[in-house]
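step: validate -> pass
step: tokenize input -> pass
step: predict -> running
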Amino acid sequence: MLTVSPIYNLYSYTQGNTMSCQMKLSMFVDPDPAEDELLFARNLGMDCVYTWLTDEQCSSDYLKRLRARIEAAGLYLYNAGNIRLGKSDKIHLALPGRDEMIDQFCAFIEDLGKAGIHTTTFTWEPDQVWSSPNSVNRFSPARHVDLAELYARPWTHGREYEREELWENFTYFIKRVIPVAEKAGVRLALHPNDPPVDGKLGGIACLIHSYADYKRAFEIAASPNLGMEFCVGCWLEGGSAFGDLFASVREFVADNRIFIVHFRNVTDTLPVFTETYLDNGYMDMYRVMKLFCDTGYSGTMILDHSPQMPPAYKGAATGYAIGYMRALLQRAEASA
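step: predict -> pass
step: emit ->
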């Protein structure tokens, strides 16, 4: 009789390790995950997981224990972040306390390195992700954006901030943290602004909203430790104004600049869009999956936020989306 661990990957047993694509599927887990949550991830066929930490959970001791628990479940903790540090308005806008916040970010990077966690994320969004009220489909709550509504909102930080000012702040930050990241062996994955607009939200210019912005960020850092959290959803929102998604993936994978992929679909390009289930937006997500498979991308692909299902069916939306992603991946591999 076959005996299996309580934490066990159904797919690796039934199919064997036949995958030819180098990328790994990943999903979010709580920073203090229950065993059932890890079992759910394994039974969905996950290779990796990621998490967002509270300040109290950012020490190297806690991170080592968390990593050990996750690895005992047959998973790999690929990346971990801290939203307070990764989306700090003090850092982004050069507010009082900026240097102290950067010091905390550097200490977090060092603790990640000591714990053997080699990737973290950040984004130049001092007000985080912007969304509009969604009255489009009350039966399937989903994030919605209407730029006219967003642009009508008041300033969030008392005045306007221009793009060049933000680039100066980015340069100040990145020059401080990159040497620390290189020494610690930790990579920084930069997420674009969401929504990616060539304008101001709350009076603040959006820093990363195009291919050209990423190129400029990489030139400033001048280090392989700065890369991308390539958000497919943001590129689809921006459309041609963001850049050629397919050509950009080929270039950035070849340059080893994509550390993480966010997999998400939307109804349309800006100025108005709604997030959809993966099979229900304007992009054929098989084309995107095959692109990452064919280019030899070897980082993780994460199910990004998507429409929710009723609370009584906890995990249903995640399971539905992951199953679809696995089907796309298997089809891409079969055609390779």
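step: describe -> Residues 1-18 have pLDDT under 50 and may be disordered.
step: cleanup -> pass
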